[in-house]
């Protein structure tokens, strides 16, 4: 499909950022495929939801960030959703290897794992009751690979994670951001202080920081809305402030986990009210723009046909085998394969909501998850360094 941007396997993807940073710091065992200036300390700041195309379109609201937008964008990976992208960044692996294959996905007990809360919904429809999966399916079992942060720490790098304080000990943190010193932050002042403290450390120091306000307001009001643009202006001033205080030998890299598109809630496809999208479906995971459809035994071909007929040219409906062969998930391990839907619905326009089971998500204006350029391409914005 000519509108789909497949993940980049050549070394310019979100998963290549931390290995490239560590290589630029002179840490053995890592390769720089992005082009990071040689440095002593490296800061990686992830602005949730700040897609490459959105930054281009709204450069007047983010003049400092736009001035750094000189390199080709990175691909986020698939699906273009926060839990998958952060795990890819932290592990240096695609979803087919690290196993966090979507916003929600099948877990061994027959339910859907929600990685943001590390809970599972056991009922396929009509029941939003979720139970903790921290003991039943531990994060370290779901994502067993050594993270890039753990490898850096083993190489005597001072590793820090400056993320919202309530992320401490969560399932997603345990799956992807384990290692180093957790530095919980509450406001932008906390985040700036942690980044600058890492920048001025004797080194070598690697600090990962996260800010989620752009994504939040994009979901609620839509990307490009007044609220979203005002938030982007704040983030731009914040990054400029940090950049202007970087000492020699420190580099700041600003990236994103995905972009975002706006869809009209009145024009979506509702899987909870369309019988054609329910017949033969055991579980429906993923999110509005990228659905994992898990079928009952023997029902896959009928489900595939029904979803293709309903969605038409508004997206691409394909089997898991086709998606794996196309490389959307990268290399897929045997343990991860059952987590991928038997049928996948990757949307070009609009989205597939669940008005009953996901009432909150179904009314949002901004969404991501698919493989359009607006969702897949993310910026890599570099400043600082001038020698290690």
Automatic annotation (TrEMBL):
It comes from the Bacteria. GO terms for molecular function: hydrolase activity. Coiled coil: none annotated. Gene3D superfamilies: Alkaline Phosphatase, subunit A. Pfam families: Phosphodiest (PF01663). InterPro entries: Alkaline_phosphatase_core_sf, Phosphodiest/P_Trfase. PANTHER family: BIS(5'-ADENOSYL)-TRIPHOSPHATASE, ECTONUCLEOTIDE PYROPHOSPHATASE/PHOSPHODIESTERASE. This is Alkaline phosphatase family protein.
């Amino acid at each position: 499909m000519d509108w789909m941007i497949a993940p980049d396997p050549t070394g310019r993807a979100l998963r290549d950022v931390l290995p490239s940073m560590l290589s630029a710091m002179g840490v053995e065992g890592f390769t720089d495929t992005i082009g990071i200036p040689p440095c002593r300390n490296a800061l990686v700041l992830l602005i949730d939801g700040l897609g490459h195309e959105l930054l281009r379109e709204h450069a007047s609201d983010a003049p400092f960030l736009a001035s750094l937008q000189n390199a080709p964008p990175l691909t986020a990976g698939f699906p273009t959703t926060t839990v998958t992208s952060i795990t890819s960044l932290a592990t240096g692996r695609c979803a087919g290897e690290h196993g966090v294959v979507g916003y929600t996905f099948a877990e061994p007990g027959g339910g859907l794992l929600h990685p943001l809360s590390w809970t599972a919904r056991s009922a396929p429809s009509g029941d939003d009751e979720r139970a903790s999966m921290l003991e039943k399916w531990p994060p370290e079992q779901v994502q067993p690979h050594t993270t890039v942060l753990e490898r850096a720490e083993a190489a005597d790098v001072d590793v820090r994670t400056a993320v919202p304080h309530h992320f401490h000990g969560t399932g997603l943190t345990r799956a992807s951001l384990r290692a180093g010193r957790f530095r919980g932050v509450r406001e932008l002042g906390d985040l700036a202080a942690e980044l600058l403290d890492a920048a001025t450390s004797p080194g070598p120091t690697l600090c990962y920081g996260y800010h989620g306000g752009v994504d939040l307001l994009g979901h609620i009001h839509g990307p490009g809305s007044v609220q979203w643009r005002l938030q982007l202006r704040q983030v731009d001033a914040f990054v400029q402030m940090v950049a202007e205080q970087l000492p020699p030998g420190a580099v700041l890299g600003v990236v994103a986990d995905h972009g975002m598109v706006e869809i009209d809630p009145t024009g979506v496809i509702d899987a909870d009210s369309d019988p054609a999208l329910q017949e033969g479906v055991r579980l429906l995971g993923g999110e509005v723009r990228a659905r994992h459809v898990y079928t009952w035994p023997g029902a896959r071909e009928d489900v595939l046909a029904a979803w293709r007929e309903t969605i038409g040219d508004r997206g691409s409906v394909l089997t898991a085998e086709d998606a794996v062969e196309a490389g959307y998930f990268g290399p897929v391990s045997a343990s991860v394969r059952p987590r991928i839907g038997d049928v996948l619905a990757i949307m070009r326009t609009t989205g597939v909501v669940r008005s009953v089971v996901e009432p909150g998500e179904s009314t949002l204006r901004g969404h991501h998850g698919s493989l359009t350029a607006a969702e897949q391409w993310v910026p890599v914005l570099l400043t600082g360094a001038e020698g290690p």
